[in-house]
Every structure is written in C-alpha cells, then in structure tokens.
Design goal:
This protein is of the alpha/beta class. The chain has one domain: Glutaredoxin, CATH 3.40.30.10. 26% of the residues lie in helices and 20% in strands. It contains 4 helices and 7 strands; from the N terminus they run βββαβαβαββα. The protein has helices at residues 40-51, 74-85, 104-112, 150-157, and strands spanning 7-9, 15-17, 25-31, 56-62, 90-91, 127-130, 136-140.
C-alpha cells in the first residue's frame, strides 16, 4: 500500500482519493478545536497560503480521542475552523487515529514513522510530511510549530 491508495471523506461528505494529491507535497495533521495547541490552525493556514500555489496541500483530520477536545459535529468543527482561523485547507470528517477503529490512512502513516510512543499518535496536531511521490518523509510531534516545518516543506517543493 502507498499513500495514494487511501481515501477519506471531506467535511462535505465527498469521498476523496489521496491520489488526487499526487505530485503535491502534503502535510497531514490530526486536529482539535478545544486544545491548547488549537492556535496552530493559524500557522497551518499561513503556511498553506504561502505555499499552496507551489504545490503544498494541508489535510486536516479532526479527532476526539485526546481528552475529548473535538466533541462537536463535523459541521460545528468546520464552522469553528472557518470563523476562528479562516481555514481554507481541506478538512476531513472526524476520525480515530489510534486504536481498533483508527482510520486506515492513519494506520499506514503511523506504520511508516514511529513517534515517542512507538506508532501511537501522542496528541492532537501530530503532523506527517509526505513528498510529491507519496513517500512519508517525517513525523512531527504535536508541539512542533507548523512554522518550524517550513524549511522541510521548501526543500520538498524545489
């Protein structure tokens, strides 16, 4: 299996194949609306605006598995992201990232890159950087600011 073999459902209910992002650099992030790290939405949107025309895509996956910090409906989450952070990058429906019901894409991403807790996602805003050929390049801890990933993104966009 490769990154491009997976699909996920956008907030609007549309099923999207990751193959739609072939040739792009992709940053996949599990998000939460009521987390101390939620302000990272602002930095993610800043990076998206700066690099989207150069081939960057950011894919947000809300998750309620960490201290129930995204308990709202998909509509409520989407509205929150729009109103509070002006998010324009793609947001998908809420998923599980750990455990038996983890989304297949996250099972794949975790298998490709280990974190501090082995393959488990530690917390909200864990980030995965994927190159334009679909290779998982790096996993970033939740506390790593999206702005600190810019150099790695720029290298892949060149």
């Amino acid at each position: 299996m490769k990154f491009y073999d997976f699909s996920a459902t956008r907030m609007n209910g549309q099923e999207v194949s990751m193959s739609n992002y072939e040739g792009k650099v992709v940053l996949v992030v599990n998000t939460a609306s009521k987390c101390g790290l939620t302000p990272q939405f602002k930095d993610l949107e800043t990076i998206y605006q700066e690099y989207k025309d150069s081939g960057l895509e950011i894919l947000g996956f809300p998750c309620n598995q960490f201290a129930k910090q995204d308990s709202g409906s998909n509509d409520e989450i989407y509205e929150f992201c729009q109103l509070n952070y002006g998010v324009t990058f793609t947001m998908f429906e809420k998923i599980d990232v750990n455990g038996e019901n983890a989304h297949p894409l996250y099972k794949y991403l975790k298998n490709k890159t280990k974190g501090l807790l082995g393959d488990k996602i530690k917390w909200n805003f864990t980030k995965f950087l994927i190159d334009s050929k679909g290779n998982v390049i790096k996993r970033y801890a939740p506390t790593v600011s999206p702005l600190k990933i810019k150099d790695d993104i720029e290298k892949l966009l060149k």
